[in-house]
Design goal:
single chain, 140 residues, alpha+beta, three-stranded antiparallel β-sheet
Amino acid sequence: MFTTCRTVRIEWGDCDPAGIVFYPRYFEMFDHSTVLLIEQALGMRKHKIYEHYGSGGWPSVETQAHFHLPIRFGDDVEIETAITTLGRSSFSLQHRLTLDGALAVEANETRVWVVRDPSRPYGLRAQAMPEDVVAHFSGR
């Protein structure tokens, strides 16, 4: 399955008053890592993916995280994001955040490929992922 890795420097705005990352910020980092993974897998930016596939995005429907080590202001961390399973309209990801090679946070989530639903204002509905998306996500 498809995997990406990126380096992130922890900024003051990521932290609570004690200088450690405030836990919701990890989910922001993981969300951005997901966008970067999908962009890399499909070879186009998010707004082009929306246009090309008529996509409404890929919202998270389930998530969990385990926090092993505190991460602090100024730390440079690596975030590895991998697609772990593919369904008809859903896919699962694993995020592993490491500091100097040590696992600090691991998270798993399930996301759904959606399109806009014109029958409901601002509505979305799940749709089967296009075959080429499945192929790219599979690493084929």
